[in-house]
TrEMBL record:
It comes from Litorimonas cladophorae. This is Aldo/keto reductase. InterPro entries: AKR, Aldo-Keto_reductase, NAD(P)_OxRdtase_dom_sf, NADP_OxRdtase_dom. The keyword Cell membrane does not apply. GO terms for cellular component: cytoplasm. GO terms for molecular function: oxidoreductase activity.
Amino acid sequence: MSFPTRTINGRKLNPMGLGCMSLSQGYFPLPSDDDAEKLLHRAIDIGYNHLDSARLYGLGHNEALLSRVLKTRRNEVFITSKCGIEFDEGKRWIDCRPETIRRAVEKSLTTMGVENIDLYYLHRRDFDTPIEESVGTVGDMITEGKIGAIGLSEMSAKTLKMAAAEYPIAAMQSEYSLWTRNPEIAVLEACRETNTAFVAFSPVARGALAGGVSNPAQLDPKDLRSKQPRFSDKNWERNQKLISQFNSVADREGLSPAQLSLAWVLAQGDHIHVIPGTASIPHLEENLATLDKRIEPSVFQEISELINQRTVSGHRYPDAMRKAIDTEDYE
């Protein structure tokens, strides 16, 4: 099967990438390493060629997991990783100082067993370090041949433009789905202006718009959704009603909820990529099949009016996490 392509840093990629975080943390139960490796091989076999990781994911586990696949299939995939969220002895903090970036890149290269990482993101904005200084450091590592391109994650349009004035920014990665519209405030347009690809994580609303959550109260206490406002008792009843209506539209159109969610995100701009995560091979295949679907614009309009920043109940992050996010926000 041939797929449409969209570019990042001049590289033609399947716009349906694979977010690898859920293989190492965040969503429970986690797969075994052997099962995760099988899923990664299956993903590449069927056409995924954009694999997204980070130093943070599993505290190095995710990059080590990818190394098991990359040792034989490096040339088949575009790989990304991220630095900027440091961790030690149970503590996390943001650090994008030049020396920290260099140390993190070397760790990523060693852990993944590669000589070059196609795209390296600054995972969060370090407000104590000028963004130009951080970006300039990664730019130096591009010159050294260790990095292919620079990305930013969860940063604002203003920050993107400041960074792009220092060095070309190949991609901006932020949360974007029907129920998280923040990039529409300014970042999507800023990406167009700076020739930056936009990479949407959590495009199926952390599983809520993929039939993945029926009762948040039954989530594992370690599951990140168990602490997010939209899945709380206070907000879930209202959100579940929206989800039920959305699922009915998907069923009417002969689509899975995940496919309708993903198709809507991809339809918002030809510079947009999606990186849904999954630990299930059937879901992996279902997501990819989205690219073969044809959906009328009227359907996208219908679901856009149903689920948006005005109708969803609760913020996407708890208050403590919101302080570390640079992206524009709705009141």
